[in-house]
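Q: I'm writing up a methods section and want to include an example of the input and output format. Could you take the sequence below and give the corresponding predicted C-alpha cells, formatted cleanly so I can copy it straight into the document?
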Amino acid sequence: MKGDLKLLTSTIYHKGKFLLENELMPPEKSCSFCLSENRMKVANIQKNPDVYLYECLQCHAVSASRMPFKEVLDLYYSSYYDKNRSQVTAGNIDQFAKHLYNGFSKHLSQGDTFSILDFGGGNGSIAYALAKDYLLKSYKNVSIAVIDYAGIKESDIPTISLKQYQSLSQIDGEEFNLIIASAILEHIPYPEADIRKLFALLKENGLFYARTPYILPFYSLLQRLGVQIDFTFPAHLHDLGPKFWNKTVNKLYDNYKFRTLRSGPSMVETSFHQDFVRALVAHLFKWPWYLFRDFYGYIGGWEAFIIKSELVSAYDK
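A: Here is the clean output for your methods example:
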C-alpha cells in the first residue's frame, strides 16, 4: 500500500510491489478457478488504485480483484532467481523431499520407471532429492520434468534424468506418477486451465502435491489491529486454504475421482538455520490447528496430498 509502513511480510521469498493504474487489468467479475460470479469482498490489499481480495462462495478460492498485465509480472519476476540462490522456495530441500515421500510412501510400489513433473520447481532440487534419497529404493529409473525459468540441476546419477520445459503447454503426450505444484499456483493469474491440465497429466493412481499460501485470517486480524502486513501482491494473487482444497477437487475436476490423502498446514518453508525466530513463530502458530482444526485459521500455508483414482462412469455422475 503506497505510503504505508509494511511491518510484516507474508513470505521471505517475495516482496509486494505497488502497481499503478496502467499496470492493472480491469476488475475481474468471476472466480479465477471455477469462473463463478458468486463472490464476496473480504479484504483490501492496495489503495489508490484499489485492489481487493474476493472469496468465491462456490469453490472458496480467494483472489485479487485486479490482475497485473503479463509484461508487469514478467518484469517483476525477471530478477527473482538472482536473489534466491537455492532457486526453490524451501529452506531445507532434503527435509522437504522427506516430507513429500512420507506423505505418499504408502501409495508407491516397486517398478521400472517413476516419472515426476515439478511444476514451478525452480531448478528441480526438491524432485531430485526425492528421487535420489527415496524413489531409487523402489524404482530402477526416475525421470523428472521441470517447468520453470531457472536453469535445472544437473544429475550426477545415471538413473535419474532431468528435462526442462518453459511452460506447461510444452508437455504433450506424457503422463506422470507424481506432480509437484509447490508454491506456484498462487502466482498464476488465471490458473483454472493449468490445474485442469495438471490433473489430466496424472497417470491413474498418480499422486499430486500442492502447497499454497493461506494467510487471509492473519491478514484480516492484523488489519483490524492496525498492523500493516505485505500480502506480497502481485507475487501472491490467490490465497488457497482448507475450504478450497477440501471441498473443491472432485467438484471442479471431473471424469476421474480424486481422493485427498492429507490436507493440512503446510510444512514450514523457513528452516531454523535460515531464520530461527521466523521458523519458531511459524511452528508455534501452526501447532494449535492440530487441536482445533476447522476452528483455527492462523496457519500461513496449506498443503494437499491427492491421489487420482478410477474413471467416473456416467452412472456415478
